[in-house]
Amino acid sequence: MSNQTPDFQLLTEDQDNYILSLSGEWVQGYEHTPFAELQAQLRQHRPGALTVDGTALASWDSVLMAFLLQCYNLCTSEHIALHTRDLPEGVIKLLDVATAVKPLDQSPEQQSPWWQGLNPVEVMHKITEDITESLDFIGEVSIAFVRLLMGKANTRFTDIRDFCYQAGPNAFGIISLTSVLVGMILAYLGAAQLQQFGAQVYVADLVVIGMLREMGVLMTAIVMAGRTGAAYAAQLGTMQTNEEIDAITTMGISPIEFLVMPRMLALVAVMPLLVIYANLLGIIGGGIVAGGMGISPLQYITQGQDAFAITHIMVGLLKSVVFAILIAIAGCQAGINSGRSSAAVGQAATEAVVTAIVYLIVADAAINILFQQLGI
Amino acid sequence: MQEERKVHIEVRDVTMAYGSFVIQRDLNFNIYEGDIFVIMGGSGCGKSTLLKHMLGLIPPSAGDIAYHGTSFTQASPKQQEAMRQRWGITYQSGGLFSAMTLAENVSLPLQLYTEYSAADIEAIVAYKLSLVGLGGYQSYYPSEISGGMAKRAALARAIALDPEILFFDEPSAGLDPISSRLLDELIIQLKESIGATVVMVTHELPSIFAIANNCVYLDNTTRTMIGYGDPAYLREHSDQAVVRQFLTRSAAAAEEDTA
Predict the structure, then answer these.
(1) Mind listing the pLDDT tens digit for each residue in A143-185?
(2) Which of A25, A284, A302, B154 could join B94 in a cystine, given CB atoms 3.0 to 4.6 angstroms apart?
(3) Is residue A303 part of a domain?
(4) How far does A63 lie from chain B, in Å, by closest CA?
Protein backbone atom coordinates (compact mmCIF):
# COMPACT_ATOMS: atom_id res chain seq x y z
CA MET A 1 0.00 0.00 0.00
CA SER A 2 3.03 2.24 0.30
CA ASN A 3 2.70 3.42 -3.28
CA GLN A 4 -0.96 4.31 -2.56
CA THR A 5 -0.36 6.69 0.32
CA PRO A 6 -0.38 10.31 -0.74
CA ASP A 7 3.06 11.76 -0.23
CA PHE A 8 5.36 14.50 -1.41
CA GLN A 9 9.11 14.85 -1.63
CA LEU A 10 11.12 17.99 -1.96
CA LEU A 11 14.02 17.31 -4.33
CA THR A 12 16.85 19.57 -5.32
CA GLU A 13 17.27 20.13 -9.02
CA ASP A 14 20.07 22.62 -8.68
CA GLN A 15 21.08 25.35 -6.28
CA ASP A 16 17.98 27.45 -6.60
CA ASN A 17 15.39 25.15 -8.12
CA TYR A 18 13.47 22.58 -6.17
CA ILE A 19 11.06 19.93 -7.32
CA LEU A 20 7.97 18.99 -5.34
CA SER A 21 7.19 15.47 -6.40
CA LEU A 22 3.66 14.28 -5.61
CA SER A 23 2.82 10.61 -5.46
CA GLY A 24 0.01 8.26 -4.47
CA GLU A 25 -3.74 8.68 -4.03
CA TRP A 26 -4.50 12.25 -3.03
CA VAL A 27 -8.11 11.49 -2.22
CA GLN A 28 -10.41 11.35 0.75
CA GLY A 29 -9.64 8.48 3.13
CA TYR A 30 -5.85 8.54 2.89
CA GLU A 31 -3.79 10.32 5.50
CA HIS A 32 -1.26 12.69 3.96
CA THR A 33 1.65 14.55 5.48
CA PRO A 34 0.41 17.90 6.72
CA PHE A 35 1.18 21.00 4.71
CA ALA A 36 3.02 22.50 7.69
CA GLU A 37 5.89 20.07 6.99
CA LEU A 38 6.34 21.33 3.44
CA GLN A 39 6.02 24.87 4.70
CA ALA A 40 8.86 24.28 7.19
CA GLN A 41 11.06 22.69 4.51
CA LEU A 42 10.47 25.50 2.04
CA ARG A 43 11.15 28.15 4.64
CA GLN A 44 14.37 26.36 5.49
CA HIS A 45 15.67 25.99 1.94
CA ARG A 46 14.26 29.20 0.49
CA PRO A 47 14.39 28.15 -3.18
CA GLY A 48 13.98 30.66 -5.98
CA ALA A 49 11.67 28.41 -7.95
CA LEU A 50 9.55 25.39 -7.22
CA THR A 51 8.27 22.91 -9.77
CA VAL A 52 5.30 20.75 -8.85
CA ASP A 53 5.67 17.37 -10.50
CA GLY A 54 2.61 15.16 -10.84
CA THR A 55 4.17 12.25 -12.72
CA ALA A 56 3.72 9.80 -9.87
CA LEU A 57 0.27 11.06 -8.93
CA ALA A 58 -2.29 8.24 -8.97
CA SER A 59 -5.56 10.09 -8.31
CA TRP A 60 -6.70 13.35 -6.84
CA ASP A 61 -9.65 15.27 -5.46
CA SER A 62 -10.22 18.40 -3.37
CA VAL A 63 -7.59 17.32 -0.86
CA LEU A 64 -4.86 17.77 -3.45
CA MET A 65 -6.36 21.01 -4.68
CA ALA A 66 -6.49 22.40 -1.15
CA PHE A 67 -2.87 21.35 -0.66
CA LEU A 68 -1.76 22.94 -3.91
CA LEU A 69 -3.60 26.15 -3.16
CA GLN A 70 -1.84 26.43 0.19
CA CYS A 71 1.38 25.77 -1.67
CA TYR A 72 0.59 28.48 -4.21
CA ASN A 73 -0.27 31.04 -1.53
CA LEU A 74 2.92 30.27 0.36
CA CYS A 75 5.01 30.62 -2.79
CA THR A 76 3.34 33.96 -3.57
CA SER A 77 4.02 35.35 -0.13
CA GLU A 78 7.61 34.02 -0.08
CA HIS A 79 8.32 35.15 -3.65
CA ILE A 80 9.01 31.67 -4.97
CA ALA A 81 8.25 31.11 -8.64
CA LEU A 82 5.84 28.20 -9.02
CA HIS A 83 5.86 25.90 -12.08
CA THR A 84 3.98 22.73 -12.80
CA ARG A 85 4.94 19.60 -14.67
CA ASP A 86 2.78 16.66 -15.67
CA LEU A 87 -0.16 17.69 -13.53
CA PRO A 88 -3.58 16.48 -14.73
CA GLU A 89 -5.39 19.03 -16.88
CA GLY A 90 -8.26 19.36 -14.41
CA VAL A 91 -5.87 20.23 -11.60
CA ILE A 92 -4.29 23.02 -13.62
CA LYS A 93 -7.66 24.41 -14.68
CA LEU A 94 -9.01 24.40 -11.15
CA LEU A 95 -5.84 25.94 -9.80
CA ASP A 96 -6.20 28.70 -12.38
CA VAL A 97 -9.76 29.39 -11.29
CA ALA A 98 -8.87 29.27 -7.62
CA THR A 99 -5.98 31.68 -8.00
CA ALA A 100 -7.67 34.05 -10.43
CA VAL A 101 -8.77 36.37 -7.64
CA LYS A 102 -6.24 37.45 -5.06
CA PRO A 103 -7.39 36.41 -1.61
CA LEU A 104 -8.54 39.15 0.71
CA ASP A 105 -5.77 40.27 3.01
CA GLN A 106 -7.52 39.63 6.21
CA SER A 107 -6.24 41.13 9.36
CA PRO A 108 -7.66 38.79 11.97
CA GLU A 109 -10.46 40.50 13.82
CA GLN A 110 -9.45 41.77 17.21
CA GLN A 111 -11.37 39.44 19.47
CA SER A 112 -11.83 41.31 22.71
CA PRO A 113 -11.41 39.01 25.73
CA TRP A 114 -14.62 38.03 27.49
CA TRP A 115 -13.81 39.98 30.66
CA GLN A 116 -13.81 43.16 28.61
CA GLY A 117 -17.58 42.93 28.66
CA LEU A 118 -17.53 43.29 32.45
CA ASN A 119 -15.70 46.61 32.41
CA PRO A 120 -17.97 48.78 34.62
CA VAL A 121 -17.49 51.85 32.45
CA GLU A 122 -18.58 49.96 29.35
CA VAL A 123 -21.47 48.32 31.17
CA MET A 124 -22.69 51.72 32.37
CA HIS A 125 -22.27 53.13 28.90
CA LYS A 126 -24.31 50.31 27.42
CA ILE A 127 -27.05 50.65 30.02
CA THR A 128 -27.30 54.40 29.42
CA GLU A 129 -27.46 53.75 25.68
CA ASP A 130 -30.24 51.19 26.15
CA ILE A 131 -32.21 53.58 28.33
CA THR A 132 -31.80 56.45 25.85
CA GLU A 133 -32.94 54.18 23.04
CA SER A 134 -35.99 53.05 24.99
CA LEU A 135 -36.87 56.64 25.89
CA ASP A 136 -36.52 57.61 22.24
CA PHE A 137 -38.89 54.87 21.25
CA ILE A 138 -41.39 55.78 23.98
CA GLY A 139 -41.22 59.37 22.79
CA GLU A 140 -41.96 58.36 19.21
CA VAL A 141 -44.85 56.22 20.37
CA SER A 142 -46.23 59.14 22.39
CA ILE A 143 -46.05 61.44 19.38
CA ALA A 144 -47.79 58.81 17.27
CA PHE A 145 -50.49 58.52 19.94
CA VAL A 146 -51.08 62.26 19.98
CA ARG A 147 -51.32 62.24 16.18
CA LEU A 148 -53.78 59.39 16.45
CA LEU A 149 -55.95 61.43 18.85
CA MET A 150 -55.80 64.32 16.40
CA GLY A 151 -56.89 61.94 13.65
CA LYS A 152 -53.71 62.40 11.64
CA ALA A 153 -52.10 59.02 12.17
CA ASN A 154 -51.89 56.29 9.53
CA THR A 155 -53.29 53.63 11.81
CA ARG A 156 -55.72 51.16 10.29
CA PHE A 157 -58.54 50.07 12.54
CA THR A 158 -58.93 46.73 10.79
CA ASP A 159 -55.43 45.95 12.05
CA ILE A 160 -56.45 46.73 15.61
CA ARG A 161 -59.37 44.32 15.33
CA ASP A 162 -57.12 41.50 14.07
CA PHE A 163 -54.58 42.06 16.80
CA CYS A 164 -57.31 42.15 19.45
CA TYR A 165 -58.42 38.74 18.28
CA GLN A 166 -54.88 37.37 18.40
CA ALA A 167 -54.18 38.80 21.83
CA GLY A 168 -57.57 38.15 23.42
CA PRO A 169 -59.69 35.08 22.64
CA ASN A 170 -56.66 33.07 21.58
CA ALA A 171 -55.12 33.59 25.01
CA PHE A 172 -58.12 32.36 27.02
CA GLY A 173 -56.85 28.82 27.50
CA ILE A 174 -53.49 29.64 28.97
CA ILE A 175 -54.89 32.52 31.07
CA SER A 176 -57.57 30.23 32.51
CA LEU A 177 -55.01 27.65 33.54
CA THR A 178 -52.53 30.05 35.12
CA SER A 179 -55.06 32.15 36.98
CA VAL A 180 -56.92 29.19 38.55
CA LEU A 181 -53.62 27.77 39.70
CA VAL A 182 -52.37 31.12 41.03
CA GLY A 183 -55.60 31.50 42.99
CA MET A 184 -55.09 28.06 44.49
CA ILE A 185 -51.45 28.78 45.31
CA LEU A 186 -52.42 32.00 47.09
CA ALA A 187 -55.04 30.15 49.10
CA TYR A 188 -52.63 27.39 50.15
CA LEU A 189 -49.98 29.91 51.08
CA GLY A 190 -52.37 31.96 53.20
CA ALA A 191 -54.14 28.98 54.75
CA ALA A 192 -50.92 27.49 56.09
CA GLN A 193 -50.14 30.73 57.96
CA LEU A 194 -53.65 31.70 59.01
CA GLN A 195 -54.36 28.25 60.43
CA GLN A 196 -51.85 28.96 63.21
CA PHE A 197 -54.17 31.70 64.47
CA GLY A 198 -57.36 29.80 63.72
CA ALA A 199 -58.23 32.47 61.18
CA GLN A 200 -58.60 30.28 58.08
CA VAL A 201 -61.64 32.19 56.97
CA TYR A 202 -59.43 35.16 56.13
CA VAL A 203 -58.07 33.13 53.24
CA ALA A 204 -60.91 34.67 51.26
CA ASP A 205 -59.60 38.18 51.97
CA LEU A 206 -56.12 37.16 50.99
CA VAL A 207 -57.17 35.60 47.73
CA VAL A 208 -59.55 38.39 46.70
CA ILE A 209 -57.22 41.25 47.51
CA GLY A 210 -54.16 39.37 46.27
CA MET A 211 -55.75 38.48 42.95
CA LEU A 212 -57.42 41.83 42.30
CA ARG A 213 -54.51 44.07 43.18
CA GLU A 214 -51.51 41.98 42.31
CA MET A 215 -51.41 38.41 41.12
CA GLY A 216 -54.20 38.45 38.54
CA VAL A 217 -52.72 41.31 36.59
CA LEU A 218 -49.07 40.32 37.05
CA MET A 219 -49.59 36.71 35.91
CA THR A 220 -51.67 37.81 32.93
CA ALA A 221 -49.00 40.32 31.99
CA ILE A 222 -46.22 37.76 32.20
CA VAL A 223 -48.17 35.30 30.07
CA MET A 224 -48.92 38.04 27.54
CA ALA A 225 -45.29 39.14 27.47
CA GLY A 226 -44.23 35.63 26.57
CA ARG A 227 -47.08 35.12 24.16
CA THR A 228 -47.92 38.39 22.48
CA GLY A 229 -44.79 40.46 23.18
CA ALA A 230 -42.56 37.81 21.65
CA ALA A 231 -44.93 37.43 18.71
CA TYR A 232 -44.80 41.19 18.04
CA ALA A 233 -41.01 41.15 18.11
CA ALA A 234 -40.86 38.18 15.73
CA GLN A 235 -43.42 39.70 13.33
CA LEU A 236 -41.70 43.06 13.17
CA GLY A 237 -38.25 41.45 13.05
CA THR A 238 -39.27 39.35 10.05
CA MET A 239 -40.77 42.44 8.42
CA GLN A 240 -37.43 44.17 8.95
CA THR A 241 -35.66 41.20 7.33
CA ASN A 242 -38.05 41.28 4.33
CA GLU A 243 -37.51 45.02 3.93
CA GLU A 244 -41.22 45.57 4.59
CA ILE A 245 -40.43 48.23 7.18
CA ASP A 246 -38.24 50.01 4.63
CA ALA A 247 -41.12 49.91 2.17
CA ILE A 248 -43.49 51.38 4.76
CA THR A 249 -41.04 54.14 5.59
CA THR A 250 -40.45 55.10 1.95
CA MET A 251 -44.20 55.23 1.35
CA GLY A 252 -44.14 58.08 3.80
CA ILE A 253 -45.92 56.12 6.50
CA SER A 254 -44.48 56.09 9.97
CA PRO A 255 -43.83 52.49 11.00
CA ILE A 256 -44.69 53.49 14.55
CA GLU A 257 -48.16 54.64 13.51
CA PHE A 258 -48.74 51.82 11.06
CA LEU A 259 -47.23 48.87 12.92
CA VAL A 260 -46.72 49.73 16.56
CA MET A 261 -49.91 51.68 17.35
CA PRO A 262 -52.42 48.99 16.32
CA ARG A 263 -50.52 46.36 18.29
CA MET A 264 -50.33 48.53 21.36
CA LEU A 265 -53.94 49.70 21.22
CA ALA A 266 -55.11 46.14 20.77
CA LEU A 267 -53.17 45.00 23.80
CA VAL A 268 -54.42 47.97 25.85
CA ALA A 269 -57.99 47.12 24.88
CA VAL A 270 -57.68 43.42 25.61
CA MET A 271 -55.52 43.28 28.74
CA PRO A 272 -58.11 44.74 31.20
CA LEU A 273 -60.71 42.25 29.97
CA LEU A 274 -58.27 39.36 30.36
CA VAL A 275 -57.40 40.61 33.84
CA ILE A 276 -61.05 40.70 34.93
CA TYR A 277 -61.42 37.15 33.62
CA ALA A 278 -58.22 36.06 35.36
CA ASN A 279 -59.35 37.63 38.66
CA LEU A 280 -62.64 35.79 38.53
CA LEU A 281 -61.01 32.43 37.86
CA GLY A 282 -58.34 33.05 40.49
CA ILE A 283 -60.95 33.74 43.14
CA ILE A 284 -62.78 30.55 42.12
CA GLY A 285 -59.49 28.64 42.34
CA GLY A 286 -58.92 30.02 45.83
CA GLY A 287 -62.46 28.98 46.75
CA ILE A 288 -61.76 25.40 45.75
CA VAL A 289 -58.78 25.23 48.08
CA ALA A 290 -60.70 26.97 50.86
CA GLY A 291 -63.48 24.43 50.43
CA GLY A 292 -60.97 21.66 50.91
CA MET A 293 -59.94 23.27 54.20
CA GLY A 294 -63.39 23.25 55.64
CA ILE A 295 -64.58 26.74 54.72
CA SER A 296 -68.03 26.52 53.19
CA PRO A 297 -68.64 28.30 49.88
CA LEU A 298 -71.08 30.64 51.58
CA GLN A 299 -68.50 31.60 54.17
CA TYR A 300 -65.92 32.15 51.45
CA ILE A 301 -68.26 34.34 49.43
CA THR A 302 -69.42 36.41 52.41
CA GLN A 303 -65.90 36.91 53.65
CA GLY A 304 -64.72 37.67 50.15
CA GLN A 305 -67.47 40.28 49.69
CA ASP A 306 -66.21 42.11 52.77
CA ALA A 307 -62.73 42.27 51.34
CA PHE A 308 -63.93 43.25 47.88
CA ALA A 309 -63.65 46.91 47.04
CA ILE A 310 -63.92 48.83 43.81
CA THR A 311 -60.55 50.41 44.59
CA HIS A 312 -58.85 47.01 44.38
CA ILE A 313 -60.33 46.33 40.97
CA MET A 314 -59.38 49.77 39.74
CA VAL A 315 -55.81 49.32 40.93
CA GLY A 316 -55.60 46.05 39.02
CA LEU A 317 -57.11 47.55 35.87
CA LEU A 318 -54.84 50.56 36.00
CA LYS A 319 -51.85 48.24 36.26
CA SER A 320 -53.16 46.17 33.37
CA VAL A 321 -53.21 49.22 31.08
CA VAL A 322 -49.70 50.25 32.13
CA PHE A 323 -48.43 46.69 31.67
CA ALA A 324 -50.07 46.37 28.25
CA ILE A 325 -48.27 49.51 27.08
CA LEU A 326 -44.96 48.25 28.46
CA ILE A 327 -45.31 44.80 26.85
CA ALA A 328 -46.18 46.33 23.49
CA ILE A 329 -43.30 48.79 23.70
CA ALA A 330 -40.77 46.11 24.66
CA GLY A 331 -41.98 43.77 21.90
CA CYS A 332 -42.25 46.34 19.13
CA GLN A 333 -38.99 48.07 19.99
CA ALA A 334 -37.10 44.79 19.89
CA GLY A 335 -38.77 43.91 16.59
CA ILE A 336 -38.22 47.24 14.84
CA ASN A 337 -34.58 47.44 15.93
CA SER A 338 -33.95 43.82 14.98
CA GLY A 339 -31.13 42.85 12.65
CA ARG A 340 -31.82 41.29 9.26
CA SER A 341 -31.06 37.64 9.78
CA SER A 342 -32.80 34.63 11.23
CA ALA A 343 -30.55 34.72 14.29
CA ALA A 344 -31.33 38.40 14.84
CA VAL A 345 -35.08 37.76 14.79
CA GLY A 346 -34.65 35.11 17.47
CA GLN A 347 -32.59 37.53 19.50
CA ALA A 348 -35.29 40.18 19.12
CA ALA A 349 -37.94 37.81 20.49
CA THR A 350 -35.77 36.93 23.47
CA GLU A 351 -35.01 40.57 24.12
CA ALA A 352 -38.70 41.43 23.93
CA VAL A 353 -39.63 38.95 26.64
CA VAL A 354 -36.71 39.76 28.94
CA THR A 355 -37.21 43.51 28.64
CA ALA A 356 -40.96 43.21 29.11
CA ILE A 357 -40.56 41.18 32.31
CA VAL A 358 -38.03 43.64 33.72
CA TYR A 359 -40.38 46.52 32.86
CA LEU A 360 -43.31 44.71 34.46
CA ILE A 361 -41.58 44.00 37.76
CA VAL A 362 -40.11 47.49 38.04
CA ALA A 363 -43.40 49.16 37.12
CA ASP A 364 -45.32 46.94 39.54
CA ALA A 365 -42.98 47.82 42.39
CA ALA A 366 -43.16 51.52 41.53
CA ILE A 367 -46.96 51.53 41.40
CA ASN A 368 -47.20 49.66 44.69
CA ILE A 369 -44.86 52.08 46.45
CA LEU A 370 -46.77 55.03 45.01
CA PHE A 371 -50.14 53.68 46.15
CA GLN A 372 -48.72 52.82 49.54
CA GLN A 373 -47.64 56.46 49.96
CA LEU A 374 -50.96 57.75 48.70
CA GLY A 375 -52.81 55.33 50.94
CA ILE A 376 -54.89 53.80 48.15
CA MET B 1 -26.93 14.02 -32.14
CA GLN B 2 -24.05 12.42 -30.27
CA GLU B 3 -25.13 8.88 -29.42
CA GLU B 4 -22.31 8.26 -26.98
CA ARG B 5 -23.68 10.77 -24.50
CA LYS B 6 -24.94 9.00 -21.41
CA VAL B 7 -28.31 9.86 -19.94
CA HIS B 8 -27.85 11.29 -16.46
CA ILE B 9 -31.32 12.39 -15.44
CA GLU B 10 -34.54 11.08 -16.92
CA VAL B 11 -37.83 12.84 -16.42
CA ARG B 12 -40.70 10.52 -17.34
CA ASP B 13 -44.37 11.55 -17.63
CA VAL B 14 -44.08 13.95 -14.75
CA THR B 15 -47.21 15.84 -13.82
CA MET B 16 -46.97 18.72 -11.41
CA ALA B 17 -50.01 19.88 -9.52
CA TYR B 18 -50.95 21.76 -6.40
CA GLY B 19 -54.09 20.00 -5.24
CA SER B 20 -56.34 19.71 -8.27
CA PHE B 21 -54.62 22.61 -10.06
CA VAL B 22 -52.33 21.14 -12.71
CA ILE B 23 -49.27 23.27 -13.42
CA GLN B 24 -47.57 21.08 -16.03
CA ARG B 25 -48.35 17.65 -17.40
CA ASP B 26 -46.58 14.95 -19.44
CA LEU B 27 -43.06 16.23 -19.05
CA ASN B 28 -40.59 13.88 -20.75
CA PHE B 29 -36.96 14.72 -21.27
CA ASN B 30 -33.42 13.53 -20.68
CA ILE B 31 -30.49 15.38 -19.27
CA TYR B 32 -27.16 13.99 -20.44
CA GLU B 33 -23.92 13.75 -18.54
CA GLY B 34 -21.94 16.96 -18.78
CA ASP B 35 -24.90 18.97 -20.01
CA ILE B 36 -25.60 22.49 -18.94
CA PHE B 37 -29.33 22.15 -18.93
CA VAL B 38 -31.70 25.06 -18.56
CA ILE B 39 -35.31 24.90 -17.46
CA MET B 40 -37.05 27.98 -18.80
CA GLY B 41 -40.48 29.42 -19.28
CA GLY B 42 -42.61 32.38 -18.34
CA SER B 43 -43.25 33.39 -14.78
CA GLY B 44 -45.50 30.99 -12.90
CA CYS B 45 -45.08 28.11 -15.36
CA GLY B 46 -43.62 25.84 -12.70
CA LYS B 47 -39.89 26.04 -13.34
CA SER B 48 -38.96 26.19 -9.70
CA THR B 49 -41.52 23.54 -8.85
CA LEU B 50 -39.99 21.20 -11.42
CA LEU B 51 -36.61 21.79 -9.82
CA LYS B 52 -38.09 21.01 -6.40
CA HIS B 53 -39.49 17.76 -7.81
CA MET B 54 -36.06 16.87 -9.14
CA LEU B 55 -34.52 17.64 -5.76
CA GLY B 56 -37.20 15.66 -3.98
CA LEU B 57 -38.35 18.58 -1.85
CA ILE B 58 -41.88 18.01 -3.17
CA PRO B 59 -42.88 14.68 -4.74
CA PRO B 60 -44.44 15.03 -8.22
CA SER B 61 -48.14 14.23 -8.54
CA ALA B 62 -47.39 11.59 -11.14
CA GLY B 63 -44.43 10.29 -13.11
CA ASP B 64 -40.90 9.40 -12.25
CA ILE B 65 -37.51 11.05 -12.13
CA ALA B 66 -34.47 8.80 -12.42
CA TYR B 67 -30.77 9.44 -11.94
CA HIS B 68 -28.44 7.11 -13.82
CA GLY B 69 -31.40 4.83 -14.37
CA THR B 70 -32.31 4.59 -10.68
CA SER B 71 -35.69 5.98 -9.79
CA PHE B 72 -35.41 8.80 -7.31
CA THR B 73 -39.12 9.34 -6.83
CA GLN B 74 -39.66 5.76 -5.70
CA ALA B 75 -36.49 5.48 -3.65
CA SER B 76 -36.67 5.22 0.13
CA PRO B 77 -35.83 8.35 2.11
CA LYS B 78 -32.48 6.81 2.99
CA GLN B 79 -31.59 6.12 -0.65
CA GLN B 80 -32.75 9.60 -1.58
CA GLU B 81 -30.43 11.05 1.01
CA ALA B 82 -27.53 9.02 -0.35
CA MET B 83 -28.30 10.28 -3.88
CA ARG B 84 -28.57 13.86 -2.69
CA GLN B 85 -25.05 13.73 -1.30
CA ARG B 86 -23.82 13.64 -4.87
CA TRP B 87 -25.59 16.88 -5.70
CA GLY B 88 -24.76 20.48 -5.06
CA ILE B 89 -27.63 22.90 -4.84
CA THR B 90 -27.84 26.68 -4.70
CA TYR B 91 -31.15 28.29 -3.92
CA GLN B 92 -32.76 31.39 -5.33
CA SER B 93 -31.82 33.61 -2.40
CA GLY B 94 -28.59 31.78 -1.67
CA GLY B 95 -29.80 29.70 1.24
CA LEU B 96 -26.68 30.45 3.25
CA PHE B 97 -27.11 29.99 6.98
CA SER B 98 -27.13 33.53 8.26
CA ALA B 99 -25.96 32.61 11.74
CA MET B 100 -22.80 30.95 10.41
CA THR B 101 -19.68 32.41 8.85
CA LEU B 102 -18.86 31.54 5.24
CA ALA B 103 -16.25 29.04 6.41
CA GLU B 104 -18.80 27.33 8.67
CA ASN B 105 -21.33 27.29 5.86
CA VAL B 106 -18.94 25.58 3.47
CA SER B 107 -17.47 23.20 6.03
CA LEU B 108 -20.83 21.93 7.25
CA PRO B 109 -21.34 19.34 4.46
CA LEU B 110 -17.68 18.35 4.75
CA GLN B 111 -18.04 17.72 8.46
CA LEU B 112 -21.29 15.83 7.99
CA TYR B 113 -20.38 13.56 5.11
CA THR B 114 -16.62 13.19 4.91
CA GLU B 115 -13.84 11.93 7.15
CA TYR B 116 -11.38 14.72 6.52
CA SER B 117 -9.34 15.93 9.45
CA ALA B 118 -10.07 19.40 10.82
CA ALA B 119 -6.92 20.80 9.19
CA ASP B 120 -7.90 19.29 5.83
CA ILE B 121 -11.39 20.73 6.12
CA GLU B 122 -9.96 24.16 6.82
CA ALA B 123 -7.69 23.88 3.76
CA ILE B 124 -10.52 22.61 1.56
CA VAL B 125 -12.82 25.41 2.69
CA ALA B 126 -10.11 27.93 1.79
CA TYR B 127 -9.76 26.26 -1.60
CA LYS B 128 -13.50 26.16 -2.34
CA LEU B 129 -13.87 29.81 -1.38
CA SER B 130 -10.89 30.70 -3.59
CA LEU B 131 -12.54 28.87 -6.48
CA VAL B 132 -15.45 31.31 -6.32
CA GLY B 133 -13.15 34.26 -5.78
CA LEU B 134 -13.86 34.65 -2.07
CA GLY B 135 -10.48 33.61 -0.66
CA GLY B 136 -9.91 35.23 2.71
CA TYR B 137 -13.59 35.80 3.44
CA GLN B 138 -13.81 32.80 5.77
CA SER B 139 -14.85 34.66 8.89
CA TYR B 140 -17.45 36.88 7.24
CA TYR B 141 -21.16 36.42 7.83
CA PRO B 142 -23.56 36.26 4.88
CA SER B 143 -25.07 39.58 5.96
CA GLU B 144 -21.70 41.28 5.69
CA ILE B 145 -21.11 40.55 1.99
CA SER B 146 -22.90 41.69 -1.16
CA GLY B 147 -25.62 39.78 -2.96
CA GLY B 148 -23.31 38.63 -5.75
CA MET B 149 -20.76 37.43 -3.24
CA ALA B 150 -23.46 35.56 -1.33
CA LYS B 151 -24.44 33.77 -4.55
CA ARG B 152 -20.84 32.77 -5.09
CA ALA B 153 -20.50 31.68 -1.47
CA ALA B 154 -23.58 29.51 -1.94
CA LEU B 155 -21.88 28.04 -4.99
CA ALA B 156 -18.80 27.28 -2.89
CA ARG B 157 -21.00 25.40 -0.44
CA ALA B 158 -22.70 23.55 -3.29
CA ILE B 159 -19.39 22.30 -4.68
CA ALA B 160 -17.96 21.41 -1.25
CA LEU B 161 -18.50 17.69 -1.80
CA ASP B 162 -17.38 17.65 -5.47
CA PRO B 163 -20.91 16.93 -6.71
CA GLU B 164 -21.91 15.05 -9.85
CA ILE B 165 -24.83 17.37 -10.46
CA LEU B 166 -25.09 21.06 -9.73
CA PHE B 167 -28.57 22.52 -9.41
CA PHE B 168 -29.10 26.26 -9.64
CA ASP B 169 -32.33 28.10 -9.00
CA GLU B 170 -32.03 31.44 -10.80
CA PRO B 171 -28.31 31.85 -10.16
CA SER B 172 -28.03 35.32 -11.63
CA ALA B 173 -31.33 36.80 -10.45
CA GLY B 174 -30.72 40.18 -8.87
CA LEU B 175 -27.15 40.51 -10.11
CA ASP B 176 -25.79 43.23 -12.35
CA PRO B 177 -24.89 42.13 -15.91
CA ILE B 178 -21.17 42.00 -15.21
CA SER B 179 -21.44 39.97 -12.01
CA SER B 180 -23.95 37.75 -13.72
CA ARG B 181 -21.57 37.13 -16.63
CA LEU B 182 -18.71 36.40 -14.27
CA LEU B 183 -20.93 33.94 -12.44
CA ASP B 184 -21.79 32.27 -15.76
CA GLU B 185 -18.11 31.97 -16.61
CA LEU B 186 -17.41 30.56 -13.20
CA ILE B 187 -20.13 27.96 -13.63
CA ILE B 188 -18.67 26.90 -16.99
CA GLN B 189 -15.12 26.72 -15.63
CA LEU B 190 -16.17 24.70 -12.61
CA LYS B 191 -18.34 22.44 -14.69
CA GLU B 192 -15.48 21.73 -17.07
CA SER B 193 -12.94 21.08 -14.39
CA ILE B 194 -15.04 18.93 -12.08
CA GLY B 195 -17.03 17.44 -14.93
CA ALA B 196 -20.42 17.87 -13.34
CA THR B 197 -23.82 18.01 -14.98
CA VAL B 198 -25.49 21.38 -14.45
CA VAL B 199 -29.24 21.90 -14.19
CA MET B 200 -30.47 25.44 -13.80
CA VAL B 201 -33.65 27.41 -13.75
CA THR B 202 -33.23 30.80 -15.33
CA HIS B 203 -34.74 33.22 -17.75
CA GLU B 204 -31.67 35.34 -18.30
CA LEU B 205 -31.32 35.08 -22.08
CA PRO B 206 -27.62 36.04 -22.22
CA SER B 207 -26.89 33.30 -19.70
CA ILE B 208 -28.93 30.78 -21.60
CA PHE B 209 -27.12 31.34 -24.88
CA ALA B 210 -23.74 31.73 -23.25
CA ILE B 211 -23.67 28.52 -21.33
CA ALA B 212 -26.57 26.17 -22.00
CA ASN B 213 -26.31 23.33 -24.50
CA ASN B 214 -29.71 21.83 -23.79
CA CYS B 215 -32.96 23.19 -22.46
CA VAL B 216 -36.63 22.59 -21.95
CA TYR B 217 -39.36 25.22 -22.37
CA LEU B 218 -42.40 24.94 -20.14
CA ASP B 219 -45.46 26.65 -21.57
CA ASN B 220 -47.95 28.46 -19.41
CA THR B 221 -51.05 28.15 -21.61
CA THR B 222 -50.86 24.58 -22.88
CA ARG B 223 -49.41 23.46 -19.53
CA THR B 224 -46.77 21.20 -20.97
CA MET B 225 -43.30 21.37 -22.48
CA ILE B 226 -43.23 22.71 -26.02
CA GLY B 227 -39.52 22.99 -26.67
CA TYR B 228 -36.56 20.74 -25.98
CA GLY B 229 -33.04 20.96 -27.35
CA ASP B 230 -30.17 23.36 -27.86
CA PRO B 231 -31.46 26.89 -27.11
CA ALA B 232 -29.55 28.45 -30.02
CA TYR B 233 -31.16 25.91 -32.38
CA LEU B 234 -34.60 26.42 -30.86
CA ARG B 235 -34.33 30.17 -31.30
CA GLU B 236 -34.07 29.77 -35.08
CA HIS B 237 -35.92 26.57 -35.77
CA SER B 238 -38.53 25.89 -33.11
CA ASP B 239 -41.94 25.18 -34.64
CA GLN B 240 -43.48 26.97 -31.68
CA ALA B 241 -43.73 30.73 -32.12
CA VAL B 242 -43.85 31.22 -28.35
CA VAL B 243 -40.45 29.58 -27.88
CA ARG B 244 -38.87 31.67 -30.64
CA GLN B 245 -40.46 34.77 -29.18
CA PHE B 246 -39.20 33.93 -25.69
CA LEU B 247 -35.68 33.34 -26.95
CA THR B 248 -35.60 36.48 -29.10
CA ARG B 249 -37.35 38.49 -26.42
CA SER B 250 -39.90 39.91 -28.82
CA ALA B 251 -43.53 40.66 -28.25
CA ALA B 252 -44.37 40.61 -31.95
CA ALA B 253 -44.48 36.87 -32.28
CA ALA B 254 -47.10 36.56 -29.59
CA GLU B 255 -49.34 39.01 -31.38
CA GLU B 256 -48.87 37.14 -34.66
CA ASP B 257 -49.72 33.99 -32.84
CA THR B 258 -52.97 35.25 -31.44
CA ALA B 259 -53.96 37.11 -34.59
Answers:
(1) 999 999 998 888 888 889 999 998 988 899 999 999 999 999 9
(2) B154
(3) yes
(4) 7
